[in-house]
Amino acid sequence: NAGVTQTPKFQVLKTGQSMTLQCAQDMNHEYMSWYRQDPGMGLRLIHYSVGAGITDQGEVPNGYNVSRSTTEDFPLRLLSAAPSQTSVYFCASSTRQGGAFFGQGTRLTVV
Amino acid sequence: SQKIEQNSEALNIQEGKTATLTCNYTNYSPAYLQWYRQDPGRGPVFLLLIRENEKEKRKERLKVTFDTTLKQSLFHITASQPADSATYLCLSPDSWGKLQFGAGTQVVVTP
Predict the structure, then answer these.
(1) What is the pLDDT of residues A33-52, one digit of tens each?
(2) For residue range B30-78, what is the model confidence (pLDDT) as tens digits?
(3) What residues pair up with B12 in beta bridges, in sequence order?
């Protein structure tokens, strides 16, 4: 099993550009989420989904969009990148009360 | 507001001793708590889950307790080893089901 696959691993964007971070899982988990982690800080929830077609906002949703058209995929879209969005992004999937599996992370720099 | 908090101060401990980490929650009663390990540059890795009706859970040298009266979970690493050095995170669902991480506690085990 691949588990949770995030792409790309690294990305540099210019201010104002848009992009999509991809996240796919092959474990048939209903729950998927996106977090960002800034240097020396904990993980903050951006958006999450409890199943295909259902998404909701987390702690820091501004500037990000998500959709969940399939159980497997949960892409995160940056609408207009800002330097404040420079961070490491993690995607995770889990069953409703099970431990979460995390992707390898995407290191995003906005210049 | 509903919060989950961990001691942000690093825990320095000598090899062979027991490391004890604390996770406190306020203004809600989570159905469960999870503990994760995160190494630098990597995504968190799930370690243990404890439900509100469980007092204690063990996995090898790890032990987790859940005290709903104190609104606290304790995470113990017994017979600690330098390889246990990492940041340890607790996670719980809030009243709306959003999964929230604590900020994490860094553990440094010295030989």
Answers:
(1) 999 999 878 899 999 999 99
(2) 889 999 999 998 999 999 999 999 989 999 999 999 998 999 999 999 9
(3) B108
Q: How far is A4 from chain B (nearest CA, A)?
A: 11
Smallest Cβ–Cβ distance between A42 and the set B31, B34, B104 belongs to B104
Q: Determine whether the interchain pair B101/A42 forms a contact, defined as Cβ–Cβ distance below 8 Å.
A: yes
Report CB contact under 8 Å: A35, B101. yes
- Over residues A72-101, the mean pLDDT reads 94
Cβ of B34 within 8 Å of Cβ of A92? The answer is: no
Closest to A102 (Cβ–Cβ): which among B44, B98, B102? B44
Q: What is the pLDDT of residue B3?
A: 84
Q: What is the pLDDT of residues A58-67, one digit of tens each?
A: 999 999 999 9
Instruction: Quote the percentage of chain A above a pLDDT of 90.
Output: 87
Residue A7: partners with Cβ closer than 8 Å, 6 or more residues away? A21, A22, A106
- The closest CB to that of A48, out of B34, B99, B103, belongs to B99
- Report CA-CA distances (Å) from B1 to A86, B32, B59, B101: 27, 18, 32, 15
Return the residue of A nearest to B35 by Cα. Answer: A99
For the stretch A58-69, what's the b/e string if a residue is b when 16 or more beta carbons lie within 10 angstroms of its beta carbon?
bebbeebebbbe
Q: Give the 3-state secondary structure percentages of chain A, helix then strand then coil, rounded to 5.
A: 5, 50, 45
Rounded to whole angstroms, the Cα distance separating B7 from B34 reads: 16
